[in-house]
Amino acid sequence: MWISSHLKVLLRTLAPYFHTTCRSQAMKASARHLPKVYVTRRIPPDGLKILHQSGCCDIEQWDSDDPIPRSELLKKVVGIQGLYCLLTEKIDKELLDAAGPSLKVVSTMSVGYDHVSLEEIKKRGIRLGFTPDVLTEAVAELTVALLLATSRRLIEAVDEARSGGWGTWKPLWMCGSGLSACTVGILGLGRIGEAIVHRLRPFGVSKFIYNDVAPRHELARKISAEYGKNAF
């Protein structure tokens, strides 16, 4: 599901440039010039499958786990209608000039789009697809994992076990701190901050304090978090 959201933008945008409406007709029309889509990296198979099964685009891919060299990318975008990129590709005036007026949509497999010049794509009427909520759960879970590993000194304990430092039982050795009845601070109370609160509450955390550019009153009330402007 997560990979399909930005691809739908790409396919919806390209559809008007491919006048065949069903797949069987698409097969018969294989001799026609389909909209060209360039994929800048080796992506999950499900994503490539969506593009292939749509039957409405001619796909070329940089088939590597490493970023495509800039010089190669500038050559490959010439005359394409759709670009499927990652954060490693800078979508700026130079690249858009190289692609030319045929480019109708850019889809990026990322939450952020700092690598895309919004001003330039707006001027050219190019649509942008991205994945705004795709990493919320993963980042929240990793944050909780890191918090537990740090508070309970798991990394230190693993190192001691590997190096032979794990000797006789000592009551205070590697105790660490628990989350029960503690206060947890959150920097930035957005989607990820909210997801972290929901995951930590069952651990018995007594108070959540957050800091942000401005108080988030409605969300803070919803999750019982207190605003602490100078808390961190």
From TrEMBL:
GO molecular function: glyoxylate reductase (NADPH) activity; hydroxypyruvate reductase (NADH) activity; NAD binding
Pfam assignment, any one: 2-Hacid_dh
Stored SUPFAM superfamilies: Formate/glycerate dehydrogenase catalytic domain-like, NAD(P)-binding Rossmann-fold domains
Domain D-isomer specific 2-hydroxyacid dehydrogenase catalytic: 37-159
InterPro entries: D-isomer_2-hydroxyacid_DH (IPR050223), D-isomer_2_OHA_DH_cat_dom (IPR006139), NAD(P)-bd_dom_sf (IPR036291)
Superkingdom of the organism of origin: Eukaryota
UniProt keyword annotation of rRNA processing present: no
GO CC field: cytosol
Keywords: Oxidoreductase
The keyword Oxidoreductase is assigned to this record: yes
The protein's name in its UniProt record: D-isomer specific 2-hydroxyacid dehydrogenase catalytic domain-containing protein
Organism of origin: Engystomops pustulosus
